[in-house]
Design brief:
Layout: H1 2-38, H2 45-53, H3 57-72, H4 82-118, H5 124-152
Helix pairs in contact: 1-2, 1-3, 1-4, 2-4, 3-4, 3-5, 4-5
Amino acid sequence: MDMNLFVAYTGIAIMIGLSGIGSAFGVSIAGNAAIGALKKNSSAFGNFLVLTALPGTQGLYGFAGYFMFQNIFGILTPEMTSIQAAAIFGSGLAMGLACLITAIRQGQICANGIVAIGQGHNVFGNTLILSVFPELYAIVSLAATFLMGSALV
């Protein structure tokens, strides 16, 4: 029983850790571009702020995945089966990797938009739209985690 909890919580830790790391990288990538772009166009700080914050959402998805397993499904208990533990580990790994990669790539898209805005181009709306595409895959990984959790109860 204790090994099942260990495996499950390792998956949860991977899910929260990788999604948080991805968000930290993504926000930092966009933030670095914002600092440079502010030198040329300080009046666009609001746009830079929005685009810099976008990659931070993947970290929230990791926490939401843990919340689902702990509170909604209530399967993180000493009585869990090895199948449940393996499914939680697998969904945690899959979601963690998806959120890690999408946050970094979204940060790069936002950084390119920030640089263009800093150069005087009116691309805030376009950047916002294009940066949502990687977010879709993070949302899909959260949905898959939800489906796996609901299949375990």
